[in-house]
Amino acid sequence: MGNKIKVGAVSYLNTKPLLHGLQNSPIFNSIELSVNYPSMLARQLRENELDMALMPVAAMKEIEGARIVSNYGIATDGNVVSVALFSRVPIEEIKSIFLDYQSRTSVKLAQVLMQNYWKKDVEWLQANEHYIDYITGNKAGVIIGDRALVQLNNFEYVYDLSAAWKAFTGLDFVFAAWIANKDIDPTFLARFDQANAAGLTHLDEVIAQNPFPYYDLKTYYTENIVFELDARKKAGLEKFLEYL
Prior knowledge:
The structure is a single chain. Helix content is 36%, strand content 25%. It is an alpha/beta fold and 244 residues long. The protein has two domains: 5-77 and 172-243, Periplasmic binding protein-like II (D-Maltodextrin-Binding Protein, domain 2); 83-169, D-Maltodextrin-Binding Protein, domain 2. It is globular, with a radius of gyration of 18 Å.
C-alpha cells in the first residue's frame, strides 16, 4: 500500500473490541495507530495529522470533506452508561453544567437535550482537568468514557444522555464513527471493516485483557454499546446533525 494509513482512535474502554480486531489483523501492518481523547482526535484529523479517526460525529461539520468511511463506530439504542449528566441535585434544580473537555459529541448532545427536551436555561461552564471535584450544589457536569463508569455510584443523580435522546426522539444515537477527510482506497476500507467485525467476536478476550472493577464490561459491550452503524443508527445521526 505504500505509506501507512494514519489511524486515530478514542482511548476509552468502549473502543477496545474494535482496536482488538485491528491489532490482531494483517491490516495492522498497513496502519499507524495512535489513541487520544475524542476532542483531540477531531483536531488531529482537521490538521491532517491523521488520515482517518474514530472520532466524535459532532465535529464532522467543522472538518472540510469529512465523511464516514466504515460501518462500525460507537453507538447505542438506549442506555449507554458512559455518557451522562452527573449531579448532586435533581435536574430541576441544576443551575450550571461543566462540559467535559475531552468530549465533542457528548457536550453538544447535553446542550441539545437541555434546550429541547428538559427545556432549561443553564450556565455552561468550561471544565478543567479536575472539574469532577467541583460538581457540587446546583453545579452538574457531563462526564464521558471510563471516568463516567467510575463515577456511577458517586452521585445522587445520573442522567444517561443517550437514554434521554431516545426518550426525546425515539431514535438511536451515534457518538463516534470512523471518519476521514480524504479519499481512502476502498479495498483497504473493506479489509478495515472486516478487522473491526473480527474484534467483536473476541469480547471475552478483550474483557480479560482490560480488568475493570467499576462496571461489568460484558454488559457494557453487549447491552450498552452498539458497534455496527445500521440504518437506525444513521437516522439518529442525521437528526442529531440537524440540531447542530
